[in-house]
Specification:
Layout lengths: L2 H6 L4 E8 L11 E8 L2 H13 L4 E4 L5 E3 L4 E7 L6 E4 L2 E5 L4 H9 L3 E2 L11 H7 L2 E2 L2 E2 L4 E8 L2 E6 L18 E8 L1 E2 L4 H17 L18 H7 L6 E2 L2 E3 L7 E3 L5 H19 L8 E3 L3
C-alpha cells in the first residue's frame, strides 16, 4: 500500500484531504493541508507519526491552532490534530488531562474538586498539549506552575518527564521543535475549602479578560514581552494601534493582538507582524520576538 492507503487503514483516526487550515486556526487564514488527521488514542498518534517518518512525509501536530499561522500556500504533508484526545481524570489530588483538553475545561473540572490556582489560564484559547509546549500563561502565571509531569510519545514509546526535565521558561519548553508529541499532563493545584472559592475566582478572571482582550479572530498575544517591559506598550507607543495590512490590523483595544477580518490572508498577517517588529526596533531599539509560530512558506 502507498502512504495514503496505509494512513486510511489506521484505527481511531479520522482523515480528510485538502483541508482548509483557515477552519482550524485562530486567525481564520491559511491554505489547505494535503492530509488532516484527527487522532483519538495515543496508539493512533504514534502510528501516524511513525508512518510519516517511514515515508518521509512532513507532519505538524496541532491543538486548538490558536498560536499558529499557516501559509496561504498550504501544507504539503499531514496536519495531526489532538482534539480527539480529550479526557480529564482526578485521583489523589492529581488532575490528569490529555493533550486535546481545553484549558478552560481543565480549570472548570478542577474547580469541581475544590482545586484552584489555575484560574488565570481561563480565557487562553489553547489545549493542554499546545499550552504546555509553549508554556502559555497570563497575569504572571504560566501553566508550568501547576504541572507535575508530562507524558509524550516518541518513536512508538511513551516517555514520562518530571517537571524539572521539561526545561520550562518564559514561553518555552524542551518540547518545542522535538519529534515527540505530548499525550497527557499531570497537574497539582491548590486544595481549597470548597467549590465556591475557585468558581468565584474563575468568574473574576473571565471578567478581567473580557475587559482587556479584543473580540474577533486572533491568535492572542503576537509577541513575547521583552525583559522589563510589555510588547503591547511598545507597539502602542510606536503609534501602531489600528495599523493594518489589508484585512489584518493591530487591535485598538490591545496593541499586542492582531485581528483579522473577512478576506484576510496569512501573508497580510505575516507582513503586519514583520512591519511591527521593524518599526518598534527603529523607534526603541528593541527586537520583539514572535509568540505566533509560522508553518509553511512565507
Amino acid at each position: 500500500m502507498d502512504f495514503k492507503e496505509q494512513l486510511k487503514s489506521l484505527y481511531a483516526i479520522t482523515l480528510s484531504e485538502d483541508e482548509p487550515m483557515s477552519e482550524h486556526t485562530g486567525y481564520g487564514v491559511g491554505g489547505k493541508a494535503k492530509y488532516f488527521v484527527t487522532v483519538y488514542s495515543a496508539r493512533a498518534l504514534s502510528q501516524v507519526m511513525q508512518l510519516c517518518d517511514e515515508h518521509r512525509v512532513k507532519y505538524k501536530i496541532i491543538g486548538n491552532g490558536t498560536n499558529l499561522l499557516f501559509s496561504d500556500k498550504g501544507f504539503e504533508g499531514v496536519v495531526i490534530s489532538l482534539k480527539g484526545l480529550s479526557v480529564i481524570t482526578h485521583e489523589n489530588g492529581i488532575v490528569r488531562a490529555t493533550a486535546g483538553v481545553r484549558l478552560c475545561d481543565l480549570v472548570l473540572f478542577s474547580a469541581e474538586f475544590g482545586l484552584f490556582g489555575g484560574e488565570t489560564l481561563v480565557g487562553i484559547p489553547a489545549t493542554v498539549g499546545g499550552a504546555t509546549v509553549m508554556n502559555a500563561g497570563a497575569y504572571g502565571y504560566s501553566i508550568s506552575d501547576f504541572i507535575q509531569s508530562v507524558t509524550t510519545v516518541k518513536k512508538g514509546k511513551l516517555i514520562k518527564y518530571d517537571k524539572n526535565q521539561c526545561g520550562f521558561s518564559y514561553r518555552r519548553s524542551v518540547f518545542q521543535n522535538r519529534k515527540e508529541a505530548i499525550i497527557s499532563v499531570d497537574f497539582r493545584f491548590k486544595q481549597g475549602k470548597g467549590k465556591e472559592i475557585p468558581q468565584e475566582l474563575i468568574k473574576r478572571c473571565k471578567q478581567i479578560r473580557n475587559n482587556v482582550q479584543p473580540k474577533g479572530k486572533s491568535c492572542g498575544s503576537v509577541f513575547k514581552n521583552p525583559n522589563g517591559d510589555y510588547a503591547g506598550r511598545l507597539i502602542e507607543c510606536a503609534g501602531l494601534k489600528g495599523y493594518s495590512v489589508g484585512n489584518a490590523s493591530i487591535s485598538l483595544k490591545h496593541a499586542n493582538f492582531i485581528i483579522t477580518k473577512k478576506g484576510a490572508t496569512a501573508e497580510q498577517v505575516y507582513k503586519l507582524i514583520t512591519s511591527v517588529q521593524k518599526i518598534v526596533k527603529e523607534k526603541f531599539g528593541i527586537s520583539l520576538t514572535r509568540e505566533v509560530e509560522l508553518v509553511g512558506e512565507f
